[in-house]
Specification:
Structural class: alpha/beta
Oligomer: single chain
Strand content: 25-35%
Distance between the termini: 15 Å
Radius of gyration: 16 Å
Number of helices: 5
Strand order of the largest sheet: 5-4-3-6-1-7-10-9
């Protein structure tokens, strides 16, 4: 069975995006002088699938002229079954998210990445679908925006399995169930 991984950046005050979904606060962060990519390539190498909400999909499209997940099977979670997709190897999930996620984890050869956003993350947490999470803490406060956990989530115990700090002030905290 594959792992469902949540690898996501958040501000010190718990936000993953500005109120309008904008991620410019995140893209302004420089890479460390040692060339580290905060573990991003290692994550990508472990994956077969990416799952994201509709708003996250729209924001990712704004970040790069090329679809950064062309080597992954990507799924966009939305209530609109006719939502227009403009990227390769990308599909809409609009019903029975629980059954979809369980089947995905059981059939994928490599791991799955839950990219965001907050509502999809809350749903996956509520249904015990996330096995491992890496929170990249960015030393910045936005003051408002989209929270990492916008909805109430149930109580879940996590085990810290890794801490990595970077010269830019970012810290990766990795947990598993």
């Amino acid at each position: 069975m594959s792992l469902m991984k949540l690898y996501i950046a958040m501000t010190l005050d718990g936000y993953i995006a500005k109120p309008d979904g904008n991620l410019d606060w995140l893209t302004s962060i420089p890479y460390p002088e040692d060339g580290s990519d905060y573990g991003y390539q290692e994550l990508l190498d472990s994956l077969e699938v990416a799952v994201m909400g509709r708003s996250t999909y729209k924001e990712v499209l704004k970040l790069s002229p090329e679809w950064p997940y062309a080597n992954l099977k990507s799924y966009v979670v939305t209530t609109n079954p006719d939502y227009p997709i403009s990227t390769p190897n990308t599909f809409v999930v609009s019903s029975d998210l629980l059954a979809f996620a369980r089947e995905l984890k059981s059939k994928a050869v490599k791991d799955c990445w839950l990219i965001g956003g907050g509502k999809v993350i809350s749903y996956f947490l509520e249904h015990d679908l996330i096995d491992k999470l890496t929170l990249t803490i960015v030393p910045k406060n936005l003051g408002e925006g989209i929270r990492l956990f916008p909805d109430k989530t149930k109580e879940i115990d996590w085990k810290l399995i890794g801490v990595e700090s970077f010269s830019t002030g970012l810290v990766n905290l990795t947990y598993e169930r």
